[in-house]
Design brief:
Length: about 375
């Protein structure tokens, strides 16, 4: 089959997203309204007059050169098992014609998974430093996508340790359906958690932690205040309040159930807050914040359990806790993140990761050097 790639309207793009079981929220037309510092366009793959696939492209311009890095975060939304020789050439041809000096993709395709028991054993084993030291369950589609990209001149952009500037290659996810396709029960998901997580969920309920949801609005400022507090405590750079306002406005306009703010209060005090996003059968924990005070009431555990329960009620396939680092060494400061998430049960997942295709190699090398210097 031969495809052509051409621009489509946001409405056409959204109609296609609604027809899909799972599409990353970073590949919805609403995400273009969030990333206003990038020029964006929705693209469609056509077989004749039939729209077969879509992709959101974010263009980062290079000053004074009139060229762009064309980025498809967690995309494009194509049939990755269908052979990339029919999907990628028309994409490359179109973006080249539009002045892109390079293309960056982040295929939503796993290469390996490790269950919670393996991860726990790896953390306990001093001879294991990384997830990749453990035998994972390989995914043949991920292996083929990786092979195709490597053979076709694409360059991997995945950091060895920690998080890079783009999307995480390693995530932690809870499957919400059984092998026969039926949705798991709450009791089944709880049984998959470790004893500490179950105890903390009960502790939050016994302490009187109240979980409410909000569409943003005035509650967003309360979330942001707590988020800034968390950033100061955990030493990361927080996003401004305006960013979250834009995020809620854009995603809510696309679908009123797309994004939700969860808030945990104890005796009127906000002790934790999270942002939850859902597209079709995929639900994500996107941002979190917690108070240093009253950590013993376990507001964060209460919020996670509320979001998991709501994902089950919505018939979701997966609850995605998003990024982790591959480290399992107890000497690494990043290990606490995977220790927290592995308690939920589920599995660690390695994805194909981000890959670049230089279309103008000299300009690409200059851009790459600039980005490396800026990240130091």
């Amino acid at each position: 089959m031969t495809f052509t790639v051409r621009p489509i309207s946001p409405a056409e793009h959204l109609d296609h997203v609604r027809s899909r079981r799972s599409v990353s929220f970073l590949q919805t037309p609403a995400w273009a309204e969030v990333k206003t510092e990038w020029r964006s366009e929705s693209l469609g793959w056509y077989a004749g007059d039939r729209l077969a696939a879509t992709g959101l492209v974010l263009h980062r311009s290079v000053p004074r050169l009139g060229r762009t890095l064309a980025y498809l975060p967690w995309g494009p939304d194509i049939d990755w098992a269908g052979g990339l020789t029919v999907w990628f050439p028309p994409l490359v041809s179109y973006l080249r014609s539009q002045g892109a000096f390079a293309i960056r993709v982040a295929p939503p395709v796993p290469t390996d998974t490790w269950d919670a028991a393996q991860v726990k054993d790896g953390i306990a084993d001093p001879g294991v430093a990384r997830l990749t030291d453990l035998p994972g369950r390989p995914d043949p589609v991920g292996a083929e996508v990786t092979r195709y990209l490597g053979d076709s001149g694409w360059i991997p952009q995945n950091p060895t340790d920690g998080f890079g500037a783009g999307q995480p290659q390693f995530t932690y996810e809870i499957p919400l359906r059984r092998p026969d396709g039926t949705v798991r029960s709450e009791e089944d998901v709880l049984r998959g958690m470790n004893q500490l997580w179950r105890r903390n969920i009960k502790r939050a309920a016994k302490a009187g932690v109240e979980v409410t949801t909000s569409a943003g609005g005035a509650d967003l400022k309360a979330f942001h205040d707590l988020y800034v507090h968390t950033a100061e405590r955990d030493h990361f750079t927080p996003r401004p309040l305006a960013y979250f306002g834009k995020m809620f406005a854009a995603l809510s306009a696309e679908d009123p159930e797309r994004i939700t703010l969860y808030l945990a209060r104890h005796d009127g005090d906000l002790v934790a807050a999270t942002i939850y996003v859902r597209v079709g059968g995929h639900a994500w924990y996107v941002y979190g914040a917690s108070s240093t005070e009253k950590r013993d009431v376990r507001g964060s555990n209460a919020l996670q359990w509320a979001m998991i329960r709501d994902s089950l009620a919505a018939g979701c396939d997966v609850y995605d806790l998003r990024g982790i680092t591959p480290t399992l060494s107890t000497d690494d400061p990043h290990v606490g993140l995977i220790q927290f998430k592995v308690g939920t049960g589920g599995q660690a997942v390695r994805y194909v990761g981000e890959w670049d295709l230089p279309l103008r190699p000299i300009l690409y090398r200059a851009f790459d050097l600039y980005m490396r210097r800026r990240s130091r």
